[in-house]
Amino acid sequence: MIENFWKDKYPSGIAADIDPDEYPNVQAVLKQSCERFANKPAFSNLGKTLTYGELYALSGAFAAYLQHHTDLQPGDRIAVQLPNVLQYPIAVFGAIRAGLIVVNTNPLYTAREMEHQFNDSGAKALVCLANMAHLAEKVVPKTGVKHVIVTEVADLLPPLKRLLVNSVIKYVKKMVPPFHLPKAVKFNDVLAQGHGKTVSDASPKSSDVAVLQYTGGTTGVAKGAMLTHRNLIANMLQCKALMGSNLNEGTEILITPLPLYHIYAFTFHCMSMMLIGNHNILISNPRDLSAMVKELSKWKFSGFVGLNTLFVALCNNADFRNLDFSALKVTLSGGMALQQAAAERWKEVTGCSICEGYGMTETSPVATVNPIQKIQMGTIGIPVPSTLCKTINDAGDELPLGEVGELCVKGPQVMKGYWQRQDATDEMLDAEGWLKTGDIAIIQPDGYMRIVDRKKDMILVSGFNVYPNELEDVLATLPGVLQCAAIGVPDEKSGEAIKIFVVVRPGATLSKDQVMEHMRANVTAYKVPRSVEFRDALPTTNVGKILRRELRDEELKKLALKKPA
């Protein structure tokens, strides 16, 4: 039934299918785009712009260095641990051209997390920022990493500006702790040594792994999702078909605040936007709102990719509200659930609707999205072309439309499996290629889908399922609420009681009574929280996703301490 259900659900002009074999590998896409758009800007950061032609030349120099000056072979893993700086696309595309597998690594990782990821992936090389090199010094000896390339933030800027910016970061802001890596090579030396040398571009098969993308640590130990060339190309074409359907070639300017090492930003900016030759403005530190808004004021940007927490923070910033949004036609949201209040506020401030999608690292990552032509607020849209979805019950049986169950996804963007973890792969991926998402959803008769919640985050109050997303959405509409989270806390009477955490907007005041009154007015009795805690901040991941699990663990600890021994 499902096979044909989606065919007629796409807006006119958008094909229901893409050809994942249109390109043999990521190299072919890069080469074609860099030749087609050689003089067009590809990436900008800190006032410097790289054209597609320059990106190709520099990634070639990086690849040539790896081939001529190291013993790295095609299929070896290289960890790239960089924020949004121009060095990122150079290193990643250079590594891919040399046939290496890229292991995207979060620059904010602790030494423990780095050690796990480098050893698990078997990385033999590392590209990192000088700011994190003190951690690399500790970690590298405990891993198989043989080659370390270190870069400073401003390495690609003109000499004088480079010296100035790097010195400020190092000596004024003191953001570069001292480190000792005697064998490390500087990024600019790598480019200089590779310059002019021949590159023998690797030509991997479409089924070969291109990227090892480790999934967020919110669910226990991070696992490496094996994303093949075919996976990434399929998702690039899918994003282009649905998300980029009203973006023109070679003329659009896209704001890139989400980290490129995160698969959502990687696939969209480094793949889909590269395919159509558009210009990505890299924001190195989106947490520094005033610097980000200053950067935005320089561009007539037409696309913006963000997530809920960032939309809220920007709309609360007076300088942001004064920007020129006349060119903005696409805003995409991913990474966490978009709250209705945030979406409405963004539309009010910028005049542009947010198109929410859904995905996971394991789906490269986009699985569904709201078509720009036909956004349905509060849903995750429809499957991207060539993708099927279904919901199943606990026994694994497919459910009829409109029934709540676990969402499963099937399509050419679904990962090959987890790196060296067959048991974890078998848990999530069945023999027919269906991936269990762990999210609870409803498929509406019109094909649009709603996420009801994470399976794991569901709260059970006296036998009733309560979904934190719903409570947070309701609470987010209360004036004065900046951030909120709902969790279940063990309770003798009802099994679990609901506790909510609230961060109040600067300058606003809120009492517990106001919060409770608002909740009582908007949700049924069993969904009303038992307790409210005000906080200055909530724990979040690097991309701003609120970590409910961390809040829950804190509460469990408190309870354990209270229990009589």
How would you describe this structure to a colleague?
This protein has 565 residues and is of the alpha/beta class. Among the domains are: 53-204, Rossmann fold (3-Layer(aba) Sandwich); 458-562, GMP Synthetase, Chain A, domain 3. Helices cover 33% and strands 23% of the residues. The protein contains 18 helices and 26 strands. A nine-stranded mixed beta sheet has the order 2-1-11-10-12-13-14-15-16. An eight-stranded mixed beta sheet has the order 7-6-5-3-4-8-9-19, with helices on both faces. Strand 14 and strand 15 (366-369) form a beta hairpin. Helix 2 packs across helix 3 (52-69), helix 3 (52-69) packs across helix 8 and helix 9 (229-242) crosses helix 10. The protein is globular and about 70 Å long. The N and C termini lie far apart (57 Å). The model has no long low-confidence stretch (mean pLDDT 93).
Number of helices: 18
Q: Any guess at the CATH architecture of one domain?
A: 3-Layer(aba) Sandwich
Helix content estimate: 25-40%
Main sheet overview: 9 strands, mixed
* First-last Cα distance: 57 Å
Extended strand count: 26
Strand order of the largest sheet: 2-1-11-10-12-13-14-15-16
From the spread of the alpha carbons, the general shape counts as globular
CATH class of one domain: Alpha Beta
Portion of residues in beta strands equals 15-25%
Low-confidence runs of at least 5 consecutive residues: none
Instruction: Output the CATH topology of one domain.
Output: Rossmann fold
Average pLDDT number = 93
